[in-house]
């Protein structure tokens, strides 16, 4: 049997943050994952929409390979989460 060790999530995972100076409204299109496209029963996020940068008013920046976890109720309670696998670019995306 393995011994488990308590550590903070900050030591177990690397958190992605929006690059300093990135302004969504300066971009023509941004891959966007609305909450209804975050799955409950799949490991990977299968779909995204392209939105004009000027239309993104809020959201969280993420990169390809990141795991997205819902942060609002009841989506969090329902287990909405998934790994971002397919995007037109490696980064510059937002989640609503």
Structural notes for this entry:
The chain has one domain (26-95). Helix content is 4%, strand content 25%. The protein has one helix at residues 9-12, and strands spanning 29-33, 44-45, 49-52, 60-62, 67-69, 81-84, 93-95. The N and C termini lie far apart (41 Å).
Uncertain stretches:
none
Number of helices: 1
Helix proportion range: under 10%
Largest sheet: 4 strands, mixed
Give the DSSP E fraction (strand runs of 2 or more residues).
Answer: 25-35%
**Count of folded domains:** 1
Kindly, what is the distance between the CA atoms of the first and last residues, rounded to a whole number of angstroms? 41 Å
Could you tell me the number of beta strands? 7
Widest sheet, order of strands: 3-1-7-4
User: What's the shape?
Assistant: globular
Summarize model confidence as the mean pLDDT. Answer: 83
List the helices and strands and how they pair.
Blueprint: H1 9-12, E1 29-33, E2 44-45, E3 49-52, E4 60-62, E5 67-69, E6 81-84, E7 93-95
Parallel strand pairs: 1-7, 2-6
Antiparallel strand pairs: 1-3, 4-7, 5-6
